[in-house]
Amino acid sequence: MKAVRFDRYGPVEVLKVEDVPTPAPGPGQVLVRVRAAGINPGEVKIREGLLDSRWPATFPSGQGSDLAGVVEQAGPGAAGDSPPGRQCGRWH
Question: Is the Cβ–Cβ distance between 40 and 92 less than 8 Å?
């Protein structure tokens, strides 16, 4: 699995696409195969350290929480609402 991450505050150049372990969904969670993702303005400010006093980043940290994709796997308690194959998205 790939993820867009950063390990220090800074401009867009601190972002790296990295291989990361595929997570397993926990109770009430789903695993989504992301088809498209975007970095919203709030994430940019967090990455730049402008919101450190309110939302400090923990490193390494990820970006791209606005996404659309397909549910791959559902954790306990999530299967009824989000069956595998269902399209989903998250927008702020």
Answer: yes
- Give the separation between CA 40 and CA 2, rounded to whole angstroms: 19
User: How far is Cα 17 from Cα 37, in angstroms, rounded to an integer?
Assistant: 13
What is the mean pLDDT, run by run of 10 residues, along the chain of 92 residues?
96 97 92 94 96 95 93 83 57 40
Q: How many CA atoms lie within 13 A of 64 on its CB side?
A: 17
For residue 77, the 8-state DSSP code is T
Q: How far apart are CA 41 and CA 43, in angstroms?
A: 5
Sheet holding 2-6, edge to edge: 16-19, 2-6, 61-63
CA distance 29 to 40: 22
What is the torsion angle, in degrees rounded to the nearest 10, for the CA atoms of residue 32, residue 62, residue 57 and residue 91?
-50
Is the pTM for the entire model greater than 0.85? no
